[in-house]
Design brief:
The complex is a heterodimer of chains A (about 450) and B (about 180). Chain A is about 75% helix and about 0% strand. Chain A has about 450 residues and is an all-alpha fold. With about 180 residues, chain B is mostly helical. Among the domains of chain B are: about 80 residues, Up-down Bundle (Four Helix Bundle (Hemerythrin (Met), subunit A)), CATH 1.20.120; about 35 residues. Chain B has six helices and no strands. Classes of the chains: A mainly alpha (about 450), B mainly alpha (about 180). At the A-B interface, helix 1, helix 4, helix 5, helix 6 and helix 8 of A face helix 4 and helix 6 of B.
């Protein structure tokens, strides 16, 4: 809870900084504040409790996910400092980014639907605006508008779902809902459609197929820093909310919800991985890849809804570290060569070995090649699904992850080909890339992280 | 008596909602939408939610409708330059909408099993205020962040930049 206060305060500080001419300090204050928030998360680890009459519940799940969100946002601020340097709306942008983080933390720690909805809206509204923050670029505006229209529609679904669930159970509190469902054998029929609508609303936010249509265009059109934010912080928040909602409130229905989730898994894995093969723009390819990763996450979650939080957390950690790393490289290449087309990656191994190595580690991790974190993430997910007897699904996931290896190797092949061009990176970016590579390997060496939850 | 009022309001709401969809002129659509909102506000009063009814009239029938009218005026919608949608998309939309409606009607038919929320003064401002400042204190305070984010967003989107030096770096490469 203290972490949440700190992040909210940081967002408001960013806005006030404009008035008092403290613009120079925003970056350092934000970074420092996020570190303080992360420290609070660590301190609170021993003191699990409800806050504000059961509105939010900071248990180990919420604290671990908040910690991950904060860690990734620290890396984000570190990496994409440029995003705030030579632009006019420096304070507005940093405030909105901090509000995105606030929303994400609320979404993983909610215990009441009201907080879930508010968290989702704070996160979404900020990210809609940020997606269109490159006003000179028509594609950025298009991305913002597309995301806004579709996102509001999805929020409508979620809200209608919450209403129906409230109508059936008489409560917004997710633990009370769970108890009510257990206590009453006969429930009004509309609770089922309510649950499904909530699932649709959240599936849109985590961009699972068939609700993924917006993702490639929005990811490609938005400025790369914002794409990174969407594919990491937003995804962690939304998936955390998904897991929390369906493993606490509706756990009684998990045998039947499992079928729907597995349907989503099958089409997500197939559609996303097959479409990704045809992409020539690395940013768009990574967008499809982030849709595909949701398939693996959902496979893990649907196999055993009650006890999969640790696996999901581990997978999300591995995924988001690799994702930040790959998008950082894409951003640097894009800045230097003008576009993220796969041909622009040619000669990277010779021109800038560190960037190439970082990209290689990130893509290996996303593809699931040992010894990187992504491999153990996939390994844990597959173990979980085989252990629960879903052999066919696991085989399908294995085949699609082999397809993944093919398209992840495309930029790698391009990087090793001869090419010209000079790419400059700052020393702070160099340090960050090293840190991320080390974290990736360290997470891979210690899969015990999954035992945290 | 209440039952007749309910049927009357429901009829007005459904009828005007259909007219919103079927009228050719967007201005008429908006006006029928206002009628729908008033009918729904009447339903709120029947459900003993006076505060909600008043807010509904002020926010929806007042503010949002004015916004709609302004947008329609500014966009200057004509039939000629409205893009025609493909028939396939139309059929798909009708099928999806029909399925959703069937499912909703089918499930909501069992709604009589729902627990009625009783209590005489449940919809008054006093009760609402008490709940807002006790049980729902955190959402109430947090919604200020939501409003702040929306406000900052509007300023950011709406304000024209004075210097236009940003280079267009995101050349699109669509497949």
């Amino acid at each position: 809870m203290n972490a949440l206060y700190v992040i909210c305060g940081l967002g408001i500080f960013s806005l006030v900084a404009e008035v008092f001419n403290l613009r120079k300090w925003i970056f350092f204050v934000s970074l420092f504040g996020l570190l303080v928030a992360l420290t609070w998360v660590v301190i609170d680890w021993k003191a699990i409790s409800y806050f504000y009459r059961g509105m939010v519940y900071f248990d180990h799940f919420a604290l671990a996910f908040s910690g991950l969100i904060l860690l990734i946002s620290i890396f984000w601020f570190w990496m994409f400092r440029d995003y705030f340097v030579d632009e006019e709306h420096r304070t507005d942008k940093s405030a909105l980014v901090l509000f995105v983080v606030t929303g994400a933390v609320m979404m993983v720690s909610f215990n009441n639907m009201a907080i879930l909805f508010l968290g989702l809206e704070i996160l979404s509204i900020s990210i809609y605006v940020l997606a269109g923050s490159n006003k000179q670029n028509l594609f950025s505006t298009e991305a913002a508008f597309k995301y806004f229209l579709m996102g509001s529609f999805a929020t409508g679904f979620l809200l209608f779902g919450i209403t129906l669930v409230y109508g059936a159970t008489g409560s917004f509190n997710i633990t009370e809902i769970a108890n009510f469902i257990i206590a009453h054998r006969t429930l009004p029929r509309f609770i089922y459609i309510g649950i499904l609508m909530m699932m649709v609303g959240l599936a849109f936010k985590i961009s699972a197929v068939p609700f993924h249509q917006w993702a490639p265009d929005v990811y490609e059109g938005s400025p790369t820093p914002i794409t990174t934010l969407m594919s990491t912080v937003v995804k962690i928040g939304a998936f955390g909310a998904f897991v929390k909602l369906f493993s606490v409130a509706f756990i009684t229905f998990s045998p039947s919800l499992k079928l729907i989730e597995q349907g989503i898994v099958v089409i997500t894995l197939l559609v996303a991985n097959i479409t990704a093969v045809y992409q020539l723009n690395v940013k768009r390819m990574l967008a499809y890849s982030s849709v595909a990763q949701v398939g693996y996450l959902l496979l893990g979650f649907s196999s055993d809804s009650a006890h999969s939080a640790g696996t999901v957390f581990y997978y999300l950690t591995a995924y988001s570290v690799a994702s930040v790393m790959s998008f950082a490289v894409v951003e640097i290449v894009e800045k230097n060569t003008g576009s993220a087309h796969v041909d622009n990656f040619k000669g990277l191994f010779k021109n800038n070995p560190l960037l190439a190595v970082a990209m290689t580690v990130a893509l290996f991790s996303l593809a699931g090649i040992p010894p990187f974190a992504g491999f153990f993430g996939k390994y844990l997910v597959f173990t979980l699904s085989i252990g629960n007897g879903y052999i066919v699904l696991t085989i399908l996931a294995l085949i699609t992850s082999l397809m993944g290896v093919y398209y992840y190797f495309k930029p790698l092949v391009a990087m090793s080909q001869p090419g010209s061009g000079k790419i400059v990176i700052f020393s702070s970016e160099k340090i960050l890339l090293w840190v991320l590579i080390l974290i990736n390997i360290a997470v891979g060496i210690f899969p015990d992280l999954a035992q945290l939850l | 008596m209440t039952l007749y009022v309910f049927y009357f309001l429901s009829f007005v709401a459904i009828f005007s909602a259909l007219l919103v969809v079927f009228s050719k002129n967007p201005i008429y659509s908006v006006l029928y939408l206002i009628v729908t909102f008033f009918a729904i506000a009447g339903h709120y009063i029947l459900l003993n939610a006076q505060f909600l009814a008043v807010v509904h009239v002020i926010v929806y029938a007042g503010a949002i409708m004015v916004l709609f009218l302004y947008v329609i005026m500014l966009l200057n919608l004509n039939h000629e330059d409205e893009p025609h949608k493909k028939n396939l998309a139309k059929i798909a939309a009708v099928i999806c909408g029909g399925i959703l409606m069937t499912v909703l009607v089918g499930t909501l038919r069992g709604a009589s099993q729902a627990i009625p929320r009783t209590g005489g003064d449940i919809g008054y401002v006093k009760t609402l205020g008490r709940i807002l400042f006790t049980e729902f204190l955190l959402p109430f305070e947090i919604s200020s962040i939501l409003l702040l984010a929306a406000m900052v967003g509007v300023v950011m989107v709406g304000k024209t930049d004075t210097k236009k030096t940003t280079v267009d770096i995101n050349e699109p490469n669509n497949q």
